[in-house]
UniProtKB/TrEMBL annotation:
The lineage of its organism: Eukaryota, Viridiplantae, Streptophyta, Embryophyta, Tracheophyta. NCBIfam families: PRK01259.1, ribP_PPkin. InterPro entries: PRib_PP_synth_CS (IPR000842), Pribosyltran_N (IPR029099), PRTase-like (IPR029057), PRTase_dom (IPR000836), Rib-P_diPkinase (IPR005946). The keyword Chaperone does not apply. It comes from Aegilops tauschii subsp. strangulata. This is Ribose-phosphate pyrophosphokinase. Its EC number is 2.7.6.1. It catalyses: D-ribose 5-phosphate + ATP = 5-phospho-alpha-D-ribose 1-diphosphate + AMP + H(+). Residues 50-166 form the Ribose-phosphate pyrophosphokinase N-terminal domain.
């Protein structure tokens, strides 16, 4: 059998469908069994690398996440032009990486949301393998339905924008309502802060007889009841309120006994906290 010599595969061409072969002397150490495979040896195998980048909304949170995972935050250059436009440039390669972008859309919601979209686009154009948008506070989530005529459903619009920008997955925390997960055409990881709150209350060693869970409105009774069950089936109180406009509400009645007890109020969103000040 004719033996083969190791040569540059780029210079070789197959003949009649058979791999090319160059004769060489019997002193060559290469045999068909020991001949190395060309091409695959130099392919990078680190395409599952993980990168965490932070926007300007909450860099301290992103830093804590990265430190908890034993990683360093990715280097990114984010700046504003004089007219308010946002510029994003990644300072390191993310080709073939799993990228996590930590950017809540907290106030100023519009700027932080636009910054997130541009960061997603930058990662997509840099050939990231997967892009996960980590949005602890999902802005526009309250606009998840039409309660009146001729209203927009902004939550669906924002979900479409994030998807079209190039995100492959979204991680959110305590959405205004779980139905908003269905607005995304990509996988959504919905995590809850309730376990953290329960651990905090447990550390205070408050007796279940001295505790009462308060629902700020009738619509939140089911959520408050589920929370109360996890607190040794604590009693429940309900606030009857009337909303006269956005961020404007009037407390009418209080159903339940809260006198002399530690009240834990559960709500889906706290914006100005004006309603809570009235209820107190």
């Amino acid at each position: 059998m004719q033996r083969c010599q190791r040569v540059d595969p780029v210079r070789l061409r197959a003949v009649n469908g058979s791999p090319p072969c160059v004769p060489l002397s019997d002193r060559s150490p290469w045999t068909p069994a020991t001949m190395p495979i060309f091409g695959d040896a130099n392919i990078r195998k680190d395409d599952t690398r993980l990168r965490i980048f932070s926007g300007t909304a909450n860099p301290s949170l992103a830093q804590e996440i990265a430190s908890y995972m034993g990683l360093e935050l990715g280097k990114v250059n984010i700046k504003r032009f004089a007219d308010g436009e946002i510029y994003v440039q990644l300072q390191e390669s993310v080709r073939g990486c799993n990228v996590f972008l930590v950017q809540p859309s907290c106030p100023p919601a519009n700027e932080n949301l636009m910054e997130l979209l541009i960061m997603i686009d930058a990662c997509r154009r840099a050939s990231a393998k997967n892009i996960t948008a980590v949005i602890p506070y999902f802005g526009y989530a309250r606009a998840d339905r039409k309660s009146q005529g001729r209203e927009s459903i902004a939550a669906k619009l924002v979900a479409n924008m994030i998807t079209e920008a190039g995100a492959n997955r979204v991680l959110v925390c305590d959405l205004h309502s779980s139905q908003a997960m269905g607005y995304f055409d990509i996988p959504v990881d919905h995590v809850y802060g309730q376990p953290v709150i329960l651990d905090y209350l447990a550390s205070k060693t408050i007796s279940s007889n001295d505790l009462v869970v308060v629902s700020p409105d009738v619509g939140g009774v089911a959520r408050a009841r589920a929370f109360a069950k996890k607190l040794s089936d604590a009693p429940l109180a309900i606030v009857d309120k009337r909303r006269h406009g956005h961020n404007v509400a009037e407390v009418m009645n209080l159903i339940g006994d809260v006198r002399g007890k530690v009240a834990v109020m559960m709500d889906d969103m706290i914006d100005t906290a004006g309603n809570y000040c009235q209820r107190s």
